[in-house]
Every structure is written in C-alpha cells, then in structure tokens.
Amino acid sequence: MRFLIAYLLLFLLTPLYGIVDDGTIRGRITDKITGEPLPGAYVIYGKNLGTVSSDDGTYLFTTLPGRIKISFQLIGYETLTREINLSEGESVELNIELEIKISEIDQIVVSASRTEQKIAELSVSMDIIKSSFLSANHISDAQELINKTPGIEVLDGQASIRGGSGFSYGVGSRVLALIDGLPVASADAGNVKWQFLPLENISQIEIIKGASSVLYGSSALNGVINFRSADASNLPQTRFYTEAGVYGKPANKDWIWWDAPRVFSSASFSHLRREGNTSMGISAGLLLDKGYRKLNDEKIARISLRLKHNSARTDGLTYGINLNGGFTNKTDFLLWEDATNGALKQSPSTAAEVNGNFFTADPFITYKKNDRIRHDLKMRFQSAFNTFPVRDQNNSGAN
Least packed by Cβ within 10 Å: which of 18, 41, 49, 384? Predict the structure, then answer.
C-alpha cells in the first residue's frame, strides 16, 4: 500500500516540474576602454552549458531559476564572473565590459646583435630603460636620463660607460648613441644633441656596457645607447605631461642675485594610433628654464613624426620615415663673476647667446621573409646649425 501511494504522488507531482518557467538572461559584451562590441565571447553558465556573443556583442540564453554563476571569457581579455539570483520566468539584462589582459613577457632587445633577442639570452651586460621610468620621473632631457643609469656618466654632453673613455669634446667618447639603429652624432661638433632626442615617443632605451665595435664600428668601443621609437598598437594612445617649479635660495645669502623667483616649466605631448596597415606617432616637447645662475637661461622645443606602413601586397615588407626637429636658445655658463657674491653670476665677458637648429629625416625600408632572412635599408638626411647673434665668427653648420 505504501508503494502504491508513493507511485501515485510521484505521478501527480511530475507535471508540476514540467511547468516551471525558465528565466532569461540577455545582454551585450563590450570593450571597457573603447566601448566596441566583442563578438565571439564565451558565456558559460554551467557545466557544458554556454553560448557565444554575436557580431554586435549581444548574447541570450534561458535556464532554470535559482542562483546562476556566469563566466564571460574572450582571448586577450580578463575573465569576468557574475552571480545573479534568477526568479521563475524573470528576464534579466546583464551588460558586461571586459578589460584587456596585459601579460608580462621577456624583454626583447635588438642592440646586442641587431636582431630581436630575449634579454635573458644575452651574453653581454645590458641595461633597459622603459618608457614608464621617463614618465614616472618627469625627465625631459636624455642627458639627465642617462646619468641616472648606474655605470654611465655624461660630462658636458660626452658619455662614458664605466670610465672606459676619457673626455675629449668634439671628437666623441667612443660611446655610440643611436635612434632605431642610426647614429645621432652631429657633423658639426661630433657630439650628441641630447636635448633634441624625442623622449616623448620612446618605447625603451637599450644600453650595452662594453665594446660593440664588431657590430657598430670603432665608435662603439665603449658601448652603445640605442633609443627605440614606440610603435602604435590597435588602441590609440595619447599622453600629455606638464610640470613647473621654482629654484630654492642658496644657503649663502651673498649669492642671491635675483629679485623675482627663478622658475622653470616643461610640457610634452605624444600620440600613437594605427589606421589599417599604417601606424603613426607624433610627439612634441617644450622646456623653459630661467636658471638659478645669471645669464644662463635656456629654451628648448622639439617635435617628431614617425610613419610606418606594412605592405598589403608584399608580405613582410615595411617602409616609412622618421622626422625629428628642434630649436634651442640658451646662454652658456663658463666663468663666475667672482667668488664672494658673484658665484651664481656669469661673467659678461664669457656670456654667449647661441641659437641651435636641428633636423633629421630618416626613410627606411625593411623586408623580412622569415625568421632567418631580413634586409634593412636605412637612410638619413641631417641638418645642424649653431648661430651666435653677437659672435658671427663662431657660427657653424652642417648638412
């Protein structure tokens, strides 16, 4: 009799389970930064249960009511999990924004062998300065940046690594400075125009601490400093920095010669974007520095443009051009006026105002057939002029 009652109850209750209304969950999956829809994203809400977002990023599925745990997954994006309580017959709209997943990989360098290598595979001593270090320290002058690297010293524009070369102004220090593999030494004085290097659009700086003359010639007997320009990614990137400051007063009050505060300010701008097979990078920097020494002010302006195109017809063919230009106006500090109250005053007899102009145009062509065959053609036109408004006989220029 008991079994008969149990079977009867089971027979009567079974239809009740069949009439429970499923709940509906719908929504749209987009990129958190750009707001663009993300097609092909996986929406998983149970074991062997799931769906995929459509071309416009929307998704829709029905399931039994209760507590539902939903996982949203897409390659290149962080996985996102949401839990909701779904009532019988309820329709819930759940829009999701996925963030790009950033993965740290081994740093890739090219200076050591002129081909891309992981830094862990190198047999030479090398330092890498990332662009994040520049922005975190608000550095606007490449010379100041290099001086912050252990084992390197820049004295009056001449670089020396681990004391491996003496100071010889105008003929180089046997440390080769490069931008994307091309030397940046000027023809007029044989030195590096540090103030014109486009730090606003640099991906990283690679420094070889040791002789690299086998690859780069006798100019690299003491090492190599290679500035690598940044390439645009799929997401446009714009950065802007500005700063201002005031020089403090010296402990010796006899040295204070100014009546108004001595201020300095700088600003920089960079923009990277990709349109189809063409990537573009533009940057600019401005520095205004009155200086804490009399007759020692400085103004610097620079701008750079990088265009790079990947051929759609020929696989592995890339070509483009880098343009870099700048202007500076300053008065050099050479001799003090005297040692008592003129320690921060330049002697007018040695004060010389100079205007400098610098411009480079670097067209390039690269053809890469596979990992073993690569051809690079790099060219440069460079112009550098220094003019002294009151000392014409010291003017210099070179193309």
Answer: 18
Q: From 153, 158, 184, 183, select the one nearest 169 (Cα to Cα).
A: 158
| 3-class state of residue 204 by DSSP | strand
Tokens 């008969």, located at residue: 4
Bridge partner residues of 36 (DSSP): none
Helices vs strands, H then E, count in the chain? 4, 26
DSSP-H helix ranges across 31-165: 131-137, 142-147
For residue 359, the cross-strand partners are 325, 383
* List of residues 6+ apart from 33 with CB closer than 8 A: 99, 100, 235
Give the dihedral sign, CA 146/147/149/152: positive
SS3 state at 199? helix
| First-to-last C-alpha distance (Å) of the chain | 111
Encoding tokens for residue 76?
């290149």
Per-residue pLDDT of 83-133, as tens digits, reads 989 888 888 899 999 988 765 544 555 555 555 656 555 556 677 888 777
369 φ, ψ (degrees, to nearest 5): -85, -40
Tokens 């990537």 appear where?
279
The one-letter amino acid code at 397 reads G
Nearest partner of 186 among 392, 394, 388, 380, judged by Cα:
380
pTM value is 0.67
Rounded Cα–Cα distance for residues 154 and 156 (Å): 6
CA–CA gap between residue 51 and residue 42 (Å, rounded): 6
Q: What is the separation of C-alpha 389 from the centre of its chain, rounded to a whole number of angstroms?
A: 37
Evaluate whether 130 touches 204 at the Cβ level (below 8 Å).
yes
- Residue 302 in contact with residue 268, Cβ under 8 Å? no
Three-class DSSP category at 81: strand
Alpha-carbon separation of residue 273 from 64, 170, 267 (angstroms): 46, 39, 21
Under DSSP, the state recorded for 232 is: P
Over residues 297-337, the pLDDT tens digits come to 999 999 999 999 999 888 889 999 999 999 999 988 788 88
Name the amino acid, one letter, at 121: E
How far CA 48 is from CA of 29, 45, 170, in Å, comes to: 21, 8, 72
